[in-house]
Design a protein that fits this description.
With about 375 residues, the protein is α+β, with helices and mostly antiparallel strands. The strands form 6 sheets. Strands 3-12-15-14-13-16 form a 6-stranded antiparallel beta barrel. The protein has a 4-stranded antiparallel β-sheet with strand order 2-17-22-21, with no helix packed on it. Helices cover about 30% and strands about 40% of the residues. It has 4 domains: about 90 residues, conserved putative lor/sdh protein from methanococcus maripaludis s2 fold (Beta Barrel); about 90 residues, Efflux pump adaptor protein, beta barrel domain (Elongation Factor Tu (Ef-tu), domain 3); about 55 residues, OB fold (Dihydrolipoamide Acetyltransferase, E2P) (Beta Barrel), CATH 2.40.50; about 90 residues, Helix hairpin bin (Helix Hairpins, Orthogonal Bundle). The chain is elongated, with a radius of gyration of 43 Å. Helix 3 runs antiparallel to helix 4. A hairpin with a 2-residue loop joins strand 19 and strand 20. The protein is built from 4 helices and 24 strands.
Length: about 375
């Protein structure tokens, strides 16, 4: 009995003396971890530059004709779609004038029919007299009178046609003005201000509402002229909103205007928004991380893979299903990744979750989706 107790105690002491990783390996325990691959990618140092969101379309929606405002159909804060009616002007007077012109047009069309009949009769009489030229019955005075009657009939027809064209043009103008009495949104956006109210009189060019196309926002930043060289069209830079939301912005254009006091030039960026982003606003602040020079090819690791062990930077990689520690020398950081000067190579699988208590030699199981 005493001998069995001594043997169990010695066995327990032997197990406790073994390395922790070996104990795990012998017991079959696996640590669940999330992983990320070491990359070889271009990297450059960056400097933060403050920019602002700017709507590509914004401004007053104006009327094209004068008139009394019958109704404003939107309120401040309403979202409108392109082509949506936002206000109505009084159009009854123009409709009445169009009715009068339509009646006058009908009268002119009837007069044209009469003129056509007069022309036919005048031509018939003129031709009849012309056939008598070689006979004693020909009368030159009568022939000339009938020629004049024919010319007069032709003139009446031309006059009637011109009057008809004028009436049609006047009706077309009134129809256009009547259609302009419905003020529609030129683009989709949000109403940020009402410029007039029901019953007010507006002249051509007066504003009805102010719109901002909040779905078509880009970024403008005043970038130091020394940094412009690395911002050619299509270059991608990292950007961040004040709430910490990170995204990528692509250079659209560098404007050829320099502020002589600050030595900066405005650059426009097209943001690549992450899914689900909302509540963006015109003039909202954005931080852009502008490269300080040409990118160089480096090896990078995710920042969550770095573990501090007694003042040393350590990264756990997975080899043969087990954790292996590597001492690494780090360089500059960019966004969520850090340059690795020594200790890792592209393609290594690093542990980014579950590495705080990980020990070398421990069997690991990768969490799906990591």
């Amino acid at each position: 009995m005493i001998m069995k107790t001594i043997i169990k105690t010695l066995g327990l002491l032997l197990v406790l003396a073994l390395p922790a990783g070996l104990v795990h390996a012998q017991s079959g325990h696996q640590s669940l971890v999330g992983v990320d691959k070491v990359r070889a990618e271009p990297l450059s140092q960056t400097v933060p530059v403050i920019g602002a969101l700017i709507a590509r379309q914004s401004g007053d929606v104006a009327v094209e004709i004068g008139g009394t405002v019958r109704n404003v159909l939107v309120e401040v804060g309403d979202r409108v779609e392109k082509g949506q009616i936002i206000a109505l002007l009084e159009a009854d007077t123009r409709k009445a004038r169009a009715g009068v012109l339509a009646a006058e047009l009908a009268e002119q069309l009837a007069l044209l029919q009469v003129a056509d009949a007069d022309l036919a009769l005048a031509k018939q009489n003129m031709d009849r007299q012309a056939r008598l030229k070689k006979s004693n019955a020909f009368n030159r005075s009568i022939f000339e009178t009938r020629q004049q009657n024919y010319a007069r009939a032709l003139a009446q027809i031309s006059r009637a046609k011109a009057s008809i064209a004028g009436k049609k043009a006047s009706i077309a103008v009134l129809d256009l003005e009547i259609s302009k009495a419905r003020i529609v949104s030129p683009y989709a956006g949000v109403v940020v201000e009402r410029k007039t109210e029901q019953g007010s009189y507006v002249r051509s060019g007066d504003a009805v509402v102010r719109l901002i196309a909040d779905k078509r926002l880009e970024i403008e930043a005043n970038v130091p002229a020394l940094r412009i060289g690395g911002l050619s069209k299509g270059i991608k830079v990292d950007a961040e909103l004040e709430d910490g939301t990170r995204f990528v912005a692509i250079v659209r254009a560098t404007l050829p205007v320099e502020n002589p006091r600050t030595r900066t030039r405005p650059v426009r960026f097209v943001p690549q928004w992450p899914k689900g982003i909302a509540r963006l606003a015109n003039a909202q602040s954005v931080t852009l991380f502008i490269p300080t020079g040409k990118a160089r090819q480096v090896v990078t690791v995710h920042k969550d893979a770095i573990v501090n062990k007694r003042g040393r930077s350590v990264v756990f990689i997975i080899r043969g299903g087990k954790a292996e520690s590597r001492n690494v020398t780090l360089g500059i950081s960019s966004g969520g990744r850090i340059e690795v000067v020594a200790g890792l190579k592209a393609g290594d699988i690093t542990v980014v979750r579950g590495n705080e208590r990980l020990r070398p030699g421990v069997a690991v199981k990768v969490v799906k989706g990591s």
